[in-house]
Amino acid sequence: MKRILFLFCTFGMLSACGGGHNPDQEKLQQQAQKIGDQAYFEISKDTGIMADTVSSVASGANFEVSFSIEDGGTLSFFTFADSLLKNGIEFIFQRQGSKLLVFSSAQGHTQDWSVLFASLDASAVLTFTFDVHNNERPGHILLWEGPKRTSLNHRNTLYNSAEDSLDLNYDNSPGNGFGRNWGFKIHKARLIKALLSEPQEAHE
Known about the structure:
The protein is mainly beta. Helices cover 12% and strands 44% of the residues.
């Protein structure tokens, strides 16, 4: 455990430095685990932090994830979080039979979005793409079913905090994140793919 914490702290210091060739960081990357081509570090049992980070706290990013969940399982996905995956925007996916429950949490506020996902089969492999525009206050969140593709826009989302929040009896999204890290925590679930890229849709 001490060795893992040492590696993680070392990685945190390295990732805070500027660009350019860094042989120490390359050596550390070799000790990372992989989800597809995406590297991550295990910071505790069933919890991983991705090796790359978003460009800045006051920025937007797109996240594409694929996963499967056993009955009674949960997958939590963290964005714009600190090095312990705290103080970010958390997306929580839970399975009850074929029913998928979806929640989001930030700044001490938790919202239930499950009604918007009622048509999905939680026993299948699930893929979601979502933008988090953390440079807005509160963060603007757009979530789509399926992989990232050019046809995705604010008119074909499963959830858009600018439009769906009031229908769900919320003022807006739950809030903002305060870090540059992203990662996951799983319980009776399997993360198949996790990709970070530029936002799918810029704020209008």
